[in-house]
Design brief:
By secondary structure, the chain is of the alpha+beta class. It is built from 37 helices and 15 strands. Strands 1, 2, 3, 4, 5, 6, 7, 8 and 9 form a nine-stranded antiparallel beta sheet that branches. Helix 17 packs across helix 18 (455-476) and helix 26 crosses helix 28. The longest helix has 36 residues, at 700-735. It is globular and about 110 Å long.
């Protein structure tokens, strides 16, 4: 080992000096990090507020230029010469017998149409919605409750709309409704479903506050900007502006740049920012923070009929999120801004470069006739036409399916699902003329083919499917194209099963963690009414998922099993009840609140047998959370209905009455709350009658007061039930022939029973069962009805069907035996 050379000491000193300098720099950086709050001058508890686009434009002029004139910028505006596109020139729009006229009154834009009373009235158009491909118009139907304070009152969206592409007026009917809308119909333009405050404003304006007053049923709705401005996506910008204007480095150790973080390594942050307005969803809470996880504040519509096709393609107005999150693109970290400019909203390229800029394969592997087998430049040569086919909504608005899948005409032959090839090659001229008038787009073919009396449509559709499948096999071989997405095929196969569900196939989909949550949840929901042990095992695994979509999809199966076990003679429900109760601690609000709802259907003495260590406190906490969620939706009648149901389940009848009455006040034409209210009033009436008959200490005066109250309550109950019966009858007329109408038949049947109309009750129960033969409640109601009528043989028929639904259910088998003994007694 040699000693140090004469040159080593200076070199060593230089090394030590360099190390010291680096250490000082590190100390300075660390110190700056920990005292960043001091430099920014922003208190730790400071909350960002909305400051408006003018504050953004100062520094972000390039982005502002792209944004100006975009669909976000023009999402909503005040009606004036510059913003109104439609020609208010006296034109008349006729719709199912009603003639609406649009005209000018000086500077005002006016419409004469049927009002809430059904009579023609003149209304001023105050606001416009959108620009292309259509523009809609809004009327202030009721002023704000306090005209001195800022805010808008009840704003309603007209159905008379302007086609910006073809420059024409048209009447925008609700989906699947091709009939005149009566004024009491919730879908009428004056109904609560067409309320801007309730249904539209949140996604068309920035920082919206509905400010609904339940007692007066009035709005004082406010927003910071009338359209979808910068802060709708980036979040409130006051802290960001404060940081930019400070003399310190433009950064804060707790808040970064003071805005919603969109440029993250993973795509979730950006997609969850776009999703609330680009999804078919239900809002859970009003305290949503821009950019927060979607599932913390919203529930996305699951893949179910009639919202989606069996393979997950969009069918109803589902927007983009539900389909995109099924895709391989989503799984591979692709985000919205990879294809769309986030400020202009336009796609980055108008042609196939939109796809080939990422899918760069040698010798134009995909962008060539060798792949797509179409003439270059034709529609069939465009990537999006095959992999993102359109469906038209709102009469003129063609929207692309974002699941980005390969066409599968072989699945169309097998399951009736759509494919892009058939969509282009269907020939309307091959149909009878009376059928041609019913079809405007590919979806219409599919809907008509599903109905029994459209054989010509079904035949032509299937022949085209078969021709496309043959061409596809010729071009790409017999192996299913894009085998990586065979889960679409497996899902379609599963959802095509109506009675005998393949629980094994469903289990494979649910338990495959590599599959999209939308696919897994759809498979689990389909198992909801399956009574097999395998489906229960799958559901118990599903509810443990951290993903809200998957976990919540397991709840219907658990609920059915829990109700079945409650009827057993032993306590076999306790373990299941305990395991289920753990979901009160789930991270997702939808799972917690839905768990609480199900637990409220269990008798209190039974649910308290749960061995969850903190059951009572957790249930109360989640119920309080649920009430808070519903309170933010107080402008919707169903929210008050649910609040009433919660209170009724907890024995708080007075509070429940208040909620049901609020539901009626908020939406007088809404069917449901009167029935629930009558149940409580019936109980009160029974108590009064019992008191009158059993309390011997009552004075004559006290008896008289009770008799008067009994008469008053009886009159009120009769009035409420008559109103409800009329509302249900109208709802039944409107819903006949549409998906889900079986539920209306069932509700109307129960109302008929209360009106002593047994024939009407039987007719509608049979119709409900015909439309949904797996529904246990309909079978039980039919059994009870025929038993009451003394038609025991008919009751047995439906009881046997009940047993077929759940062979292992001892109670169902016992019911059949009891009915048979009863029949034998009557025949002797």
């Amino acid at each position: 080992m040699t000693g140090p050379t004469p040159n080593n000491p200076p070199r060593l000193r230089r090394t030590i000096l360099a190390a010291a300098i680096v250490a000082l720099i590190l100390v300075a950086v660390v110190s700056a990090y920990f005292i960043a709050d001091f430099y920014t001058g922003i208190p730790a508890d400071a909350v960002a507020t909305f400051v408006g686009r003018d504050s953004c434009i100062v520094c972000h002029q390039e982005q502002a230029q792209l944004f100006i004139g975009s669909h976000h910028d023009l999402a909503m505006d005040v009606a004036n010469e510059k913003t109104v596109l439609g020609k208010f020139d006296g034109s008349v729009i006729e719709h199912f017998g009603t003639k609406s006229r649009v005209f000018r009154d000086g500077q005002k834009f006016m419409i004469e149409t049927d009002g809430a009373d059904g009579k023609l009235q003149q209304f001023e158009v105050k606001y416009v919605f959108g620009v292309s491909p259509l523009q809609q118009y809004m009327v202030e139907l009721a002023p704000p409750r306090d005209a001195k304070e800022p805010g808008l009152g009840r704003i309603q969206v007209l159905r008379e709309s302007w086609d910006s592409i073809n420059q024409r007026w048209f009447y925008l009917s609700p989906p699947d409704v091709n009939a005149h809308l009566e004024p009491e119909d919730p879908l009428h333009w004056t109904g609560f479903t067409q309320s801007w405050n309730t249904s539209c404003a949140e996604c068309h304006s920035t920082n919206l506050k509905k400010n609904f007053d339940v007692l007066t049923a009035t709005f004082q709705t406010t927003f910071s900007e009338i359209d979808v401005s910068c802060e709708a996506c980036h979040g409130p910008g006051s802290l960001h502006v404060q940081l930019a204007n400070s003399t310190s480095p433009f950064w804060d150790r707790d808040r970064g740049y003071g805005l919603n973080k969109l440029k993250t390594a993973e795509n979730i942050a950006q997609i969850d920012t776009c999703a609330p307005c680009h999804s078919r969803r239900t809002k859970l809470q009003d305290t949503w923070t821009i950019g927060a996880p979607f599932d913390q504040s919203f529930v996305c519509q699951a893949i179910q009929h009639p919202f989606y096709h069996r393979d997950g393609q969009i069918r109803d107005e589902d927007y983009e999120y539900g389909s995109f999150t099924q895709s391989k693109m989503f799984a591979n970290n692709i985000r919205c801004s990879d294809c769309h400019d986030p400020h202009s909203l336009k796609v980055k390229y108008p042609d196939n470069q939109l796809c080939t800029s990422c899918h760069q394969h040698p010798a134009a592997k995909y962008d060539s006739p060798e792949h797509h087998f179409h003439q270059p430049g034709s529609a069939g040569a465009q990537c999006v036409e095959c992999h993102m086919p359109t469906t038209t909504y709102m009469a003129v608005d063609a929207r692309r399916d974002h699941s980005l899948r390969a066409p599968r005409p072989d699945m169309s032959v097998k399951f009736g699902t759509p494919n892009a090839c058939t969509g282009c090659h269907l020939d309307l001229k091959k149909l009878p003329e009376d059928q041609q008038t019913k079809i405007q787009q590919y979806l219409d073919w599919i809907v008509l083919a599903e109905q029994k009396d459209n054989e010509a449509v079904a035949q032509e559709l299937q022949q085209t499917n078969q021709a496309m499948a043959a061409a596809f096999e010729k071009w790409y071989g017999s192996k299913p194209h894009q085998a990586r997405t065979t889960y679409y095929h497996d899902l379609a196969e599963l959802l095509s099963q109506s009675r005998e569900v393949d629980s094994g196939k469903a289990a494979e989909l649910v338990k495959n963690f590599k599959l999209p949550a939308m696919i897994r949840s759809a498979a689990m929901l389909h198992l909801g009414n399956d009574s097999s042990a395998e489906s229960l095992k799958v559901a118990l695994n599903a509810i443990r998922s951290p993903d809200a979509k998957v976990a919540s999809s397991g709840l219907p199966r658990i609920e059915n099993e829990l109700q079945r076990r409650l009827s057993s003679i032993d306590n076999e429900y306790v373990d299941l009840l305990t395991e289920f109760s753990i979901l009160l601690d789930h991270a997702a609000p939808v799972v917690r609140t839905e768990t609480a709802r199900i637990l409220l259907t269990v008798p209190e003495d039974v649910r308290l047998k749960s061995r969850h260590p903190d059951f009572r406190r957790r249930l109360d906490a989640v119920l309080a959370e649920w009430r808070g969620i519903l309170a933010t939706q107080s402008d919707r009648p169903e929210s008050h209905m649910i609040l009433g149901d919660i209170d009724l389940a907890q024995g708080k009848t007075s509070s429940a009455v208040n909620h049901y009455e609020s539901s009626i006040r908020v939406a007088p034409q809404f069917a449901g709350p009167r029935t629930n209210l009558c149940q409580i009033l019936d109980g009160n009436l029974a108590d009064l009658r019992q008191q009158l008959s059993q309390d011997t200490s009552l004075s004559a005066e006290a008896k008289k007061r009770i008799e008067i109250e009994i008469a008053r309550q009886g009159t009120r109950i009769s009035k409420l039930r008559a109103e409800e019966h009329a509302l249900l009858a109208a709802e039944l007329r409107r819903s006949e022939g549409y998906p889900g109408s079986h539920a209306i038949h069932y509700r109307f049947a129960m109302s008929c029973y209360l009106q002593s109309d047994l024939a009407g009750c039987e007719q509608n129960l049979l119709r409900a069962h015909e439309l949904d033969q797996q529904n246990v409640n309909y079978l039980i109601a039919l059994i009870a009805l025929f038993r009451d009528k003394g038609e025991i043989a008919k009751a047995i028929t439906f009881a046997e069907l009940l047993v077929q639904q759940d062979v292992a259910n001892a109670e169902y088998r016992s019911l059949v035996e009891d009915l048979r003994r009863e029949l034998n007694r009557t025949q002797k």
